[in-house]
Every structure is written in structure tokens, then in C-alpha cells.
Description:
- This protein is mostly helical.
- The protein has one domain: Growth Hormone, Chain: A, CATH 1.20.1250.
- The chain has helices at 2-31, 33-40, 46-62, 64-77, 80-100, 104-107, 110-140, 145-174, 176-183, 185-202, 219-226, 228-262, 270-298, 300-324, 327-355, 361-391, 398-413, 415-422.
- Helix 4 runs parallel beside helix 7 and helix 8 (145-174) runs antiparallel to helix 13 (270-298).
- The longest helix is centred in the middle third of the chain and has 35 residues, at 228-262.
- The chain is globular, with a radius of gyration of 20 Å.
Amino acid sequence: MDSERKVSRKILISSTLGFTFETYDYYLYGRISPIIAVLFFPSSNILISILDTFFGYMIGFLFRPVGALIFGHFGDKYGRKRAMVISMIIGGISMLSIGFLPTYVEIGLLAPVLLIAFRALQGISFGGEWGGSVTMVSESVKKRKGLYLVLVQSGQVWGAALDFAVFVLTYTILGHDAFFAWGWRISFFIGFFIAIIALYIRTKIDDVYEHFKEKMKVPSKYLFKNYWKELLLFVVLFSAFSALNNTTTSFSISYLNKIRSVFGFENIPFFTVSVMMIVVSIITGLISPLIGQALDKYGARKVWIISLIFIIVFSYPYYYFLLHGDIYTVIIIQTIAYTLYMVGFTDLAYSATSKFPRNVRYTGSSLSYQISGGIVGGITPFLSSGLIYYFNSPTVPFVWFLILSVTALIFVVSKFGKNIFLD
């Protein structure tokens, strides 16, 4: 019992730290999107510049399903640990490369091209991280699965908090001019250092799946043939939460700092927004264990239904208060949004690791998250910017939330969804 507890604890720490790095790494781009817009996608029209920036953001997300397929295959066929070590190496190299990347002024068009290429590599790396983490944790614990999984999921919250905290610290020390000129690169270098630590810890864990004998030759083929219904359901269910997450952690940064002034409202300074997001992330992280306890007590399907209804009701008020709210109102609305996302995120981990068999669990879990998170989540900032630009309306993106959440709710309450959860 003691040895099993030690193994579970080591896997939990490794998975949480690894996911914290990947989150820090990946959402760093969204956090500094106003700077990226100026340095790599310069334009006289700020909305066009932001659109170009979030196109690069979207590219990274679109490569996440590719990473899920690659690392899911590798992890289900050869072992979880090997796949997760390789994904961490790719993520670390991509992070360091962006830190050293020259800007548009220095090398012209090659700068955004290289930036997008490194974002694609980040997407592939990220695509293999989460599925491996939740799979290893779920296979190493027997009780309180929801609680253990939400601790892994909270790595995203702590990664976001760390990301914003590093910005606040470096910006305060260096000042605006130095930070804008070169100080923003420090965040990428720190991220690379975190990757080295996470990689070291990851190499020390034991992977019992390597000795599992019933591995599939082509896990994805078996998954698509026998578990396509589960995959489809989880992709649809999580799509609304993916859109909410990428709005809260990325698009809202540019919205608060740039877009509000386009419609006659006062922008919130970039530094202030970053401090606000640290507060939001910490509050969300502290209350996250309650989500795991709710899943263990009430089950996945009930939590899906309740949280989706909340998103439907919340959609328009979110954008309304993002536009009209003062600092304290925005903190409250962002905390609600981020907590709602964590509910769906943890429920996905709980559902996917329960419904996919062990020999395709890495692939099935990864694809469930990365198709919805990569494609739907990835296009959300770009789509939201485009909707605002086309309709000249600062709240119109709420319709995107409604479409996704209503569709998901129909799926989960239907006979199709009910049968899958009852199997």
C-alpha cells in the first residue's frame, strides 16, 4: 500500500508539473499577444494586427490533434513515459527557439513565418502532454479519481498564474521600454528552465504500462472503429469549454487592453490585466479540488449538464461585463469563466479515462481534448476578433458560446449521450 501510494504521488507530481510547464509555455503566446502583434505582425489597423497575431495562435492549436495522434499512438503502443519525455523535449526546444527569435524589423517576413513554425511544434508537443498525464494518473489510483485528476488539471491554472507572475515581475524590474524591446523574451527562457526540471522528474517515474501485454498494433485504428461514439461525444461536450478557456486566458487580454477603446470604453493597462489574471488563476486553483469532489460524488454526466447550462446563461453577461466592467467586476467575471472551464476540463479527464479501454486510453483521451481544444479553442480568438471586426459589435462573440454549449447540451441529454455514460 505504501509503495503504491509513493508511485501515485510521484506520477501525480510529474504529471502536474509537466502540464504546468506546457500550459505556461503554450499560453505565454496569448498573454503577450499585444506585444507579438506589434513586433511580428505590424499593421496600421490594430484589429488587423490582432487578427494576424491570433492566426499564429490558431496555427499552434490546429497542430495539437496531430500531436495527440502521434504521441497517443506511441504511448499506447510502447509506453506512456517514453511519449511524455519526447513531448517535453519538443516543447522545451520550441520555447527556447521563440525566446531567441528576431522580430519583423530585424529579418522581415521570415520572423512571423518562423514564429508560426515554432508554434506548430509547440502544438504537436502540447498534443501529447495532457493525454499522457491524465492516463498515467488515472491508472495509478483506485479511489478519489476525480480529486486526483483535478490536481493534474490545476497545473493549467498554476501555469497561467506563473506566466502572468513572471511578466509582472520582469515588467516591474525592467520598465516598459526595456520589456517591450527584449524583456518579453525572459519568460520564454524561464519556461525552458522549467522544462528541464520537469523532464528530469519525468525520467524518474516508473511506467507499468510498458509491461502491459494487450497493446494494439495501431491504437488509433481500433479506437476509430470501436469507440468513435465516445470520441465524438467528448469532442462535442468539451468544445464549449475550450472556447471559454481560450477567451478567458488569451483573447480577453487583447480585448481588455486594446479592443475596449475601439468602442469608446477605457482600456485596462496590460500590466493591470496581468495582475488581475494572477488573482483569477490563484482563486480558481484554490477552489478546483471542489470540482474533483463533485465528480466523485455526483458522476460525470450530471456535472456536464449543470456546467453547460451555466455557460448558456453566462455567455452574454460575460462579454457585457468584459466591456463595461471595472477592474473588480472583470476579476469576478473572469474567475467564474475560468472555474467553469476547469469543471469541463476535469470532467473530460474523468470521462475519457473511464470510457476508453487501457490499450487506447492515451490516444482516445488525447484526441478528445485536442480536437476540441485544438480546433475549436484555437479558432476562437481569431473568430471572435473577426466577428467583432465584421459586425462592429463588441459583444457578438457570445453567439459562438451559445452555439457550442447548446449543441453539447443536446448531445449529453439525448439517448446517444445517455447510453454512452450508462455503458
